[in-house]
Write a structure and sequence with these properties.
The protein has helices at about 15-20, 25-35, 65-80, 95-105, 120-135, 140-160, 170-180, 195-210, 240-245, 265-270, 305-340, 345-360, 365-375, 380-390; strands at about 1-10, 45-50, 50-60, 90-95, 185-190, 210-215, 235, 250, 275-280, 295-300. It is an alpha/beta fold and about 400 residues long. Helix 12 (about 345-360) crosses helix 13. The model has no long low-confidence stretch (mean pLDDT about 85).
Length: about 400
């Protein structure tokens, strides 16, 4: 009985495994509705990002093993991964207090590849909204996710964790700058600039006021930036290969299940000899990794940011400790709320009995009856705890 989580994340699962679990919104909705059809599971939320896919459920079942089996079957079934060898080695399971702790850490960015990154908070909120719209969440997971978001917001306002935030989007520009020495006057192509990550890349590179920016768009979709800046050239997605030879940096961050750039087509276009950087921020991958075989070409994907992320994380460890202290308070509040929520029927019975005795024998006798019932139905240890609480 309680909250349970199954997780595939960057912590132990390599990119090729995470790609298998990069679900569309429709797939996420299907999984949530499918698992809540079982009597053992009453609520479900699926969180899917480029670095993690996680299923959160609330269950009244006393058999957590049965629920975990249901979750695993649903997740692997949707991914078509039931027959994958050793796939179980990449699954993490959380239950009870550990599950509660996990979501609070995730939402505040403390479990991310880049500690304190900002994108995860919005992704958690989106996952919660999606589950509400699908009708697969209720009082337990609604309260759980709301409190996790509230705790994460307090972390961001009361610590320096997010004030020096570095996300995978900003790391993409950092590696490009390291490889080329500078982005000043460099031509940068962003494929998928209308998406969340691509939009952040665009906003960040605009703030540098140095690069010559090109962005792609499908179906003439309008690209809007936060401050209304339009200091970039928009090209049709179908023409992307025609511009590759000019580019110094290409960053792709789409939700496409297929490559946006294939090796064979890229190689034909790259005729000018110069150093180039290709950065793939997508899961599944957008850019065919074989491009790294082309002379003077650097290629990075989401897993290649581990070194840079580690350096960044070392600087944030002190702030992360302060953040954990804040989250501990919210975790405790949620656990207290959950115990009360589960005990509402018991409290109702006790209250009704107390009122009944009070009506016939008076309030004093009702209290005597209540304390006698407490004494007769609890261990000495529980009684010590009960009276210790009353004394405070």
């Amino acid at each position: 009985m309680g909250i349970q989580i199954i997780s595939i994340s960057h912590k132990i699962a390599p990119l090729h495994v995470r790609e298998m679990f990069a679900f569309t919104e429709e797939q996420q909705k299907h999984m949530m509705q499918k698992i809540t059809e079982h009597l053992e599971v009453s609520e479900c939320i699926v969180l899917s990002t480029c670095n993690r896919t996680e299923m959160y459920v609330y269950s009244d079942s006393e058999s957590k093993g049965c629920v975990f089996n249901l979750m695993e079957d649903t997740l692997l079934g949707e991914a078509g991964a039931q027959e994958e060898e050793d796939i179980g080695n990449y699954l993490l399971f959380y239950h009870g207090e550990k599950a509660i702790h996990h979501l609070f850490q995730v939402t505040a960015g403390l479990d991310s590849m880049v500690i304190g990154e900002d994108q995860i908070l919005g992704q958690v909120k989106t996952a919660h909204k999606q589950a509400r719209e699908a009708g697969t969440t209720g009082v337990y997971l609604n309260t759980f996710f709301r409190m996790a978001v509230t705790g994460a917001k307090k972390v961001k306002t009361e610590t320096e964790l997010s004030k020096t935030s570095v996300s995978t989007a900003t790391l993409a520009l950092k590696v490009a700058e390291e490889e080329l020495g500078t982005l000043k006057d460099k031509k940068v192509l962003i494929i998928g600039a209308t998406g969340k990550i691509g939009g952040i890349v665009l906003m960040n590179i605009q703030s540098l006021h140095q690069a010559d920016i090109y962005v792609t768009t499908r179906k003439n979709k309008l690209i809007q930036t936060k401050h209304g800046n339009d200091d970039f050239t928009t090209i049709d997605y179908e023409d992307r290969y025609n511009y590759l030879d000019q580019m110094d940096v290409v960053i792709s961050a789409t939700s496409s299940p297929h490559y946006t750039l294939t090796y064979s087509k890229m190689k034909k276009q790259l005729v000018t000899a110069k150093r180039r950087v290709f950065v793939d921020l997508a899961v599944p991958m957008d850019i065919e990794a074989k491009i790294s075989a082309v002379d003077d070409t650097c290629y990075y994907n989401i897993d290649d940011f581990t070194r840079i992320a580690r350096e960044n994380n070392q600087k944030k460890l002190r702030e992360a400790e302060a953040a954990s202290g804040i989250l501990d308070e919210y975790e405790l509040q949620f656990e207290q709320w959950m115990v009360f929520q589960k005990s509402l029927s018991v409290m109702g019975k006790v209250r009704d009995n107390f009122v009944k005795v009070a009506e016939h024998k008076g309030v004093e006798k009702a209290f005597d009856h209540f304390f006698y019932w407490v004494r007769e139905n609890n261990t000495p240890e529980d009684l010590e705890t009960f009276f210790h609480c009353l004394n405070h």
